[in-house]
Amino acid sequence: MLEQKITRRTFLKGSLAAGALATFGGKLIPIEPAKAAAAGQAETRVVPTLCEMCGVKCGVLAHVRDGRVWRLTGNPRDPQSGGRLCARGNAGTKTLYDPDRLKGPMKRVGEGQFQPISWEQAFQEIGSKLKELKEQYGPQSLVWLAHPELISPLEKHFMAAFGSPNYTGHGPTCYSSRNVAFEQMYGGVPGVDYRNVRYYIAFGRNLTGGIKNPDVQKIVAAKAEGAHLVAVDPRLSDFAYFADEWLPIRPGTDLAMVLAMINVLINENLYDAAFVAAYTTGFEELKKGVSGYTPDWAAGITGIEAGTISRIARELAAAKPAAAVDPGWHAVTGSQYGNSVQAGRAIAALNALLGNLGARGGLSLPPTIKLGSPAGIMGPKPPAATAPRWDGAGSEKWPLNKDHGMIQTFPERVKQDQPYPVKAVIIQHLNPVRSSTDSLAFIEALKKLDLVVAIDIQMNDTAYYAHYILPEATYLERYDPLMTVGNKVLLRQPAIKPLFDNKGAEEIIAGIGRAAGLSEYFNFTLEQYNDALLGPLGLTQAQLALTGVAEVEASKPDYSKLKTPSGKIELACPAFVKAGSTLTPAWEPPLVEPRDDSFRLIQGHVPMHTHTTTDNNSYLHAIMPENELWIHTSRAGKLGIKTGDLVEVASKVGKVRVKARVTEAIHPEAVFLAHGFGCRVPLRHLAYNRGANGGDLIPIMTAPVSGAAAQCETLVTVRKAG
């Protein structure tokens, strides 16, 4: 929220780390215990581990005294936190000690009613039901839904062993359009060199709001050294407020502006001709394809003046190659619009014209660390699944999104028996009742299934409808498979033993697997798994645990041999033609347009919360306890709405009540609702009934080519609540 700028600044300050942590030339220097703050106190034990208050997984130091984690600080040798934590990272202890967290396995015995059971009973009953469903309907009747985390290789291992192809992540409600665009054109999704960029444009990316800690630290430092930052966003987001320029574009029309900027670079010969000739294919096709997309044309669509579009394009080109247009994440190129994949393709092409791939201040692909293979300890190789995926991803109709799936279509698919029935779901690290679309439809789908298992640290809105709830230990109580960032390997390890009857995810997965008749696939420990990965590096989990991070040899990417059919950036990409799209990026209007009596609903993240996982954290709840509906002053006035009024927001699938925030800081055609609120689980006492859930309003919709959820293709009406 704009009124909470102090929070945004505060999280960048970070805390001083206790003790020393370093890795030099492969040598591991263990953490020294911190001295007690006062005479007579026990020494503080410092444990290096990885945060999980968001998906970034910054390195943290857990300070433990008398068996209690009393403080978290950034690990100064971590390549991401650099010794600094955001508000969420600092609040991790309040998730660990949340009185409402799950404390043991539970079985549903009635609506909103659960009874504690033992792990043995939970595993036996779940395993027995899985075997029954597998025999009757086939292994493909089981779907696994997850927010991909470090444990995902073992989740996929379980599904392969069970014989189901149906592992699906949350990408369609986040980043799948962006990934599909860049994977086909670049062979992977590059990142921005935020620290050294000189001219940076974000189309809808709220970099300082949907915080990725290392990126924010770098972009702040770049701005301090003179980098010019441009935010193109219908809303004055946290990043738009921080940037040098804010262009309040009509929502859903970013694609038109990007196409016009490509037109300017080509027609005015401002592109990097040498780079384009050496590292791309399809330039002539791109030139022909964008010939009609002039700044004057784009101005009529976007509401941004033609002169401004031309100026921004010229300034961007003048700063090349230390210039970048952010590939994005959840926003314009991710899962918001029907044209998001075209926007992703256009942004990929625009960056290529800047010649910035591999350049300082441009885009880069990650280096590669040669890890070992754990296949030898994970049992026999499972036979390939014989059934198609439950959602059709990777089929002839959806050839480009097999790795991402279409989670938003789950409710519709459960109603069908073709090509086969879906009867069971295991949901881990995910809350699709609030994080996906059409919440009511998702709830009804869960009620139709024979088996719903939720694995999580908290009773979220989805777990509330599960038959079995299996409580995972928090990130401060468990190990996980290791992680790599750049040329470093990192380890999550427990700072303390589990406070309650919780288990690590690998124990839960193995327990279900053994009970489901898959024992031969789960005769290994997580330490053995990590040791197998670390073997070629001359390290073990026990050694890595001393520091939490080690620097190793990594291979730099070869930009002359990208993982595309041509080995180059494909400005003209035949793969999209085969998927039913255009050869080069082309204009596609949004799927819906608001009328005089309606608004486009846009949503996004805030810097003090992560998805739906932190609304019950007492520290973060105190900073932002609920969301508000942003509505433009002119539209609110006509509706008789003032800031603080309770309003009813309705779409074709549902309605919510929420407080209004009347502001000039949003495009008049849109209203904005921050994601992550509107919990309907009374067992979460702080979060319960605070704010509104956007998922109650968003219909199930699937964007072409990428299969993304197109969440901002939602029209709503707003009225003052009676």
UniProtKB/TrEMBL annotation:
It holds the Pfam family Molybdopterin. Its cofactor is [4Fe-4S] cluster; Mo-bis(molybdopterin guanine dinucleotide). Signal peptide: none annotated. PROSITE patterns: 4FE4S_MOW_BIS_MGD, MOLYBDOPTERIN_PROK_1, MOLYBDOPTERIN_PROK_3, TAT. InterPro entries: Asp_de-COase-like_dom_sf (IPR009010), MoPterin_dinucl-bd_dom (IPR006657), Mopterin_OxRdtase (IPR006656), Mopterin_OxRdtase_4Fe-4S_dom (IPR006963), Mopterin_OxRdtase_prok_CS (IPR006655), MopterinOxRdtase_cofactor_BS (IPR027467), Prok_Mopterin_Oxidored (IPR050612), TAT_signal (IPR006311). Residues 376-395 are annotated as: Disordered. GO terms for molecular function: 4 iron, 4 sulfur cluster binding; metal ion binding; molybdopterin cofactor binding; oxidoreductase activity. SMART domains: Molybdop_Fe4S4. It is an enzyme of class 1 (oxidoreductase). Its EC number is 1.8.5.5. Keywords: 4Fe-4S, Iron, Iron-sulfur, Metal-binding, Molybdenum, Oxidoreductase, Signal. Residues 44-100 form the 4Fe-4S Mo/W bis-MGD-type domain. It comes from the Bacteria. Belongs to the prokaryotic molybdopterin-containing oxidoreductase family. This is Polysulfide reductase chain A. It comes from Neomoorella thermoacetica.
